[in-house]
Write a structure and sequence with these properties.
It is a single chain. By secondary structure, the protein is an alpha+beta fold. About 25% of the residues lie in helices and about 30% in strands. The chain folds into two domains: about 45 residues, no CATH class; about 70 residues, TonB (TolA/TonB C-terminal domain, 2-Layer Sandwich), CATH 3.30.2420. The chain is flat.
Length: about 150
């Protein structure tokens, strides 16, 4: 790599642009005053994909939402116990749990989607006791719990 001499009082960019020697600095190539950005093929593909997702307004998780027609009716519902520590700390908020329901209506698995860590376990324990209406196949839906602090 050739060293670039620059007069005192000029910036690196000014000195480089005055030179006939092309150089590259952090992905920007400069040759006699021309500036161009060089992106690798994968960066272009990634930027294009991100732009398409943003402009279309669709995220990968938007397709997992449930409509009222796809929800199974709850036959037996158990309310979660408000954890004592959460109550003393005045922790409030919503907890969302994804529930996989077997064809016979029992809760097969649960997965926490969101919520305060102090409230999550109580909700998981409660929803595992729920019974749903029977259906011909296994289904998945989101169950939401809301905790309100004492006023």
């Amino acid at each position: 790599m050739a060293l670039l001499w620059r007069p005192v009082g000029t910036s690196f960019l000014e000195a480089a642009m005055a030179s006939d020697v092309p150089f590259s600095y952090r992905g920007i190539s400069i040759l006699k005053g021309d500036v161009s950005m060089r992106f690798s093929k994968w960066k272009r593909v990634g930027l294009t994909a991100a732009a398409v997702l943003i402009l279309s307004g669709v995220s990968g998780r938007a397709q997992t939402g449930n409509t009222d027609e796809s929800k199974r009716k709850v036959k037996t519902r158990v309310a979660p116990v408000y954890p004592e520590l959460a109550r003393r700390m005045n922790v409030a908020g919503k907890v969302k749990i994804e529930v996989v329901i077997s064809p016979d209506g029992r809760v097969k698995t649960t997965r926490v989607v969101g919520g305060h860590p102090l409230l999550v376990q109580a909700c998981q324990d409660a929803v595992k006791e729920w019974k749903f209406a029977a259906a011909p196949e296994e289904t998945t839906q989101i169950v939401e719990f809301e905790f309100r602090a004492a006023e």
